[in-house]
């Protein structure tokens, strides 16, 4: 797939990147090279191959999913502008 300078200009505008007019042909060539590489990757047969998280097989460490208060309520509430009875106090918005 080939990208022309108008498409490169449009992509730069959408990305909110200011690209000088003289650099647009080079940017278009880079975009074309990237899309060519993606097309090469799409040609690889990956049928039956499981996704990997790393090149070395490893199991992720797991912990039990237990809800706790963090055992630090005073440390958390000391940053609050207003705390009452162990909770954050906020202004009333509904009457």
TrEMBL record:
Keyword entries, A-Z: ATP-binding, Ligase, Nucleotide-binding, Protein biosynthesis
Chaperone found in the keyword field: no
Keyword Ligase: yes
Transmembrane segments: none
Catalytic reaction equation(s): L-aspartyl-tRNA(Asn) + L-glutamine + ATP + H2O = L-asparaginyl-tRNA(Asn) + L-glutamate + ADP + phosphate + 2 H(+); L-glutamyl-tRNA(Gln) + L-glutamine + ATP + H2O = L-glutaminyl-tRNA(Gln) + L-glutamate + ADP + phosphate + H(+)
Entry EC no(s): 6.3.5.-
Pfam families: GatC
Enzyme category, top tier: ligase
InterPro entries, alphabetized: Asp/Glu-ADT_sf_sub_c, GatC
NCBIfam families: gatC (TIGR00135)
Family note: Belongs to the GatC family.
Subunit and partners: Heterotrimer of A, B and C subunits.
UniProt function note: Allows the formation of correctly charged Asn-tRNA(Asn) or Gln-tRNA(Gln) through the transamidation of misacylated Asp-tRNA(Asn) or Glu-tRNA(Gln) in organisms which lack either or both of asparaginyl-tRNA or glutaminyl-tRNA synthetases. The reaction takes place in the presence of glutamine and ATP through an activated phospho-Asp-tRNA(Asn) or phospho-Glu-tRNA(Gln).
Matching PANTHER family: GLUTAMYL-TRNA(GLN) AMIDOTRANSFERASE SUBUNIT C, MITOCHONDRIAL (PTHR15004:SF0)
Name this polypeptide is given: Aspartyl/glutamyl-tRNA(Asn/Gln) amidotransferase subunit C
